[in-house]
Amino acid sequence: MRFPLDRRTLAILLPSAGAFAVLFGQPIMSLVRDWWTDPEAAHGLLLAPVAIWLGWRARPTVPGSPNRALGLVVLAGAILLRYLSGLAAEQFTMRLSVILALAGLTAYFLGPRQLRSWWLPFALLVLSVPLPEVVRSSLTLPLQFRASQAGVALLEWRDIPVRLNGNIIEVPGRKLFVTEACSGLRSLTALFSISVLIGAVALRTWTGRIALLGGAVMVAIGVNAFRVFLTGFLVVFASPGVADGFLHLSEGWLLFVASLGLTAAGAWLLSRIERWLRGGFAEAPA
């Protein structure tokens, strides 16, 4: 970046950085701690560094057109949100206030045009913030039931005696409990976030990107249902130990890799469709 850092600019930049650290240091540290310790938030360890790298790549090389008024309004909103969420001890909005403050600083120092060019890094930062517990709880139980029902349907299709009681699957010699960790919310959140990145890099239209996100959601739900079926199938025909421990964990990782492969294949197919449509429109008579 070739910006002239004169005394006036430094007199504004340095106090702003200090105030930002004082106001938002605690939510930043708690967010990093959750990335490291909470499996539901672990995708932030990937998304945040990628967002920083993408922001560095798209950094401006000439001075922009700062919008002081817009920047101050956004910063005031971020500080108010930080204060209110701190009073309520609400971690999600407190962490979002950090990203809102970064957007305000961007508008203040670099302008709205740079803010628009950094839409992907900001989107990845938002996705790296773990969902509120109330939202997570409201999504987990329906996903548990959906995975249980789909897994049982596949087991019945294979003529395996099975009985479903809520999220408890009874197969010969074993009861399988579809826990919160097996609801698929973790893989759904991670796959959705990664799909935003893949769509931004591989696709050019918002229609294609939205289609990719919808496909990623269906892939995550479908693969998780298949995981429930596969666990029950292996418990019946291989070993009851497949439902626990290292084997069960390895099965989950392998199927998540398969989900990534299916999503990447979907992005490739959508990119081919986009190229075909652009070529068709280019060759059409005026």
Q: How large a portion of the residues is in β-strands, by DSSP E?
A: under 5%
User: Which range best describes the helical content: under 10%, 10-25%, 25-40%, 40-55%, 55-70% or over 70%?
Assistant: over 70%
Number of domains: 2
How far the N terminus sits from the C terminus, by CA atoms, comes to 43 Å
Mass-distribution shape? elongated
DSSP strand count: 3
Order of helices and strands: HHHHHHHEEEHHH
Instruction: Specify the number of helices.
Output: 10
Write up this protein.
The chain has ten helices and three strands. The chain has a three-stranded antiparallel beta sheet with strand order 1-2-3. The chain has two domains: 7-125, no CATH class; 135-283, no CATH class. It is mainly α and 286 residues long.
How is the secondary structure organized here?
Blueprint: H1 7-37, H2 44-57, H3 68-88, H4 91-109, H5 112-117, H6 119-127, H7 133-157, E1 163-165, E2 168-171, E3 174-177, H8 185-202, H9 206-237, H10 245-283
Antiparallel strand pairs: 1-2, 2-3
Short description:
The chain has 286 residues and is mainly α.
What are the defining features of this structure?
elongated, 10 helices, 3 strands, mainly alpha, 75% helix, 2 domains, 286 residues, three-stranded antiparallel beta sheet
